[in-house]
Amino acid sequence: MKKALIKDYSKALYDMTAGIKDSQVDIVIGSFIELLARDGKISKVDKIIEEYTKYEKLQRGVKEVEITSAFDVSEKVAKEVKNYFGGEVEISKKINKEILGGLRIKLGDKIFDTSVKTQLAKMKESLI
Questions:
Q1: Does 1 fall in a domain?
Q2: Residue 89 β-bridge partners
Q3: Whole-prediction pTM value?
Q4: Is the same domain home to 30 and 79?
Q5: DSSP-assigned beta bridge partners for residue 4
Q6: What distances in angstroms separate CA 77 from CA 19, 84, 120, one per listed residue?
Q7: DSSP state of 18
Q8: Average pLDDT by consecutive 10-residue portion of the chain (128 residues)?
């Protein structure tokens, strides 16, 4: 029998709660907690909720974009990134001095890397 993963539990919770009435949420959540307890997964509840949130946003078509830069990204740049990807976009920003400059943009499992560090590494590779 296949071992259930955190993503499996988060999708199951989404399926269980999709379209139910507010009055039924407590009952469904209670049943879900019982399932986690039975499967010995109560300690994973924080990660399951985190995955649930990601999955729920994905189902609504919300794109989560992470922008990493050596310096704080201006609102103008964040807005340009939102416009580039279109639709509903949630931006999170990270600062990483090691990339030296430029941007690294992550959308799902895709990474658009225009960082100075990466450009220098590519240049070094082509010179060798």
A1: no
A2: 63
A3: 0.69
A4: no
A5: none
A6: 37, 10, 23
A7: T
A8: 78 89 89 91 92 90 94 93 92 94 92 93 89
